[in-house]
Amino acid sequence: MNKSMLKTIVLGGTALTLTFALLTYPKEALEASVRGLNTWWKVVFPSLLPFFILSELLIGFGVVRFIGSILEPLMRPLFRVPGVGGFALAMGMGSGFPSGAKITARLRQEEQLSKTEAERLVSFTNSSNPIFIFGAVAVGFFSNAAVGIILAFAHYLGNILVGLVMRFYGKKADTTYSASTQRPSLIQAFKEMHEARIKDQRPIGKLLGDAVLSSVQSLLMIGGFIILFSVLNKLLFVMNITTFISSSLSYLFSLLQLSTALSLPFISGLFEITMGSQLTSQTAESTLFQQVIIVSFILGFSGFSVHAQVASILAETDIRFFPFFCARLMHGLFASILAILAWKPFEQNILSQAQWSPHALPTFLQEGTTSWSQIYFEFCTLYGPTFTILLLFTYSLLYMKRHFPLK
């Protein structure tokens, strides 16, 4: 039996098993599907769509080329990527998964990156956004805003460390940066911006329409993966597969002096970060210190749901997925180590907040609060679905106009 035939048998058998599980546990699958759908249309879609559209417009107007010219002396020596990588890094940190991958793929399609540079860039430009870390995880799950500080510190610094390591990936001949590169000139940067806009040749109306169509198509794909992995995670749990794998990890957790009760949330987090982070925060048999370590790894690894989204985006280019996967493992490891190192400086503040309100409601659920997390939560809950429906309707009109024009 050759390798290709074995792969066919494994994939087919896995699909049949999951189909059988779906028919056996329809109630649990439906609940998980609804949960994934609510996450997508209330939070993910309204959060990411503006970033996706703006990134397309900034690329089309040549602004990204301008930013790249300015940041070239910084990004080249540090990460061995062109200056436009700074734009992907900033947008990835601000809007979260999988914005960095989408922007990197777009830059590769524009031939502003080589294949190796794109593989370096995508490895450290995908991260969780600050609203999720502080609002959902720290305040929502742990009811402790101070936890968000240590999680964010470990997450973002860990991502930068991944970028510094990945600079050694690929052949040296791939880049031609020289230490004698001249300082960036604003005039030259504006010229490159203008040339990029003229080269695009699309009128503003078409550029905006293309941005909306491309962004909504990407978000529809992302929504499908969120729902799929939400169901998959639930099915693996009810079939006791997650429990079996977690029991196998108990010895490793004991060796690392971590509570064995955290092995089950850890496995869930490998598939989907939201559920894994929530289950970790609810594990009473572990200390807060141990929970922070596990959640740091989960956020860094990002979960197979995000991996599938990134793989689908990269499939439209010649960028390989494997370097991204290795980088996620490194990020999880780096974030966990940084969380351990940063625990002592923040320990007193974190524990004091936990002792002051061990059963406190999340900030956005308390009366009289006006924090940014409350504003974001209320916007997503009240207006997120309406915003999503309106944009999907707009997408439908643009799609019909493009593909079925009136004669």
From TrEMBL:
It holds the Pfam family Gate. Residues 42-140 form the Nucleoside transporter/FeoB GTPase Gate domain. The keyword Membrane applies. This is Sporulation integral membrane protein YlbJ. Signal peptide: none annotated. The chain crosses the membrane at residues 47-67, 79-97, 131-157, 207-231, 251-271, 292-315, 321-343, 375-398. Keywords: Membrane, Transmembrane, Transmembrane helix. InterPro entries: Gate_dom, Spore_IM_YlbJ. It comes from Priestia flexa. It comes from the Bacteria.
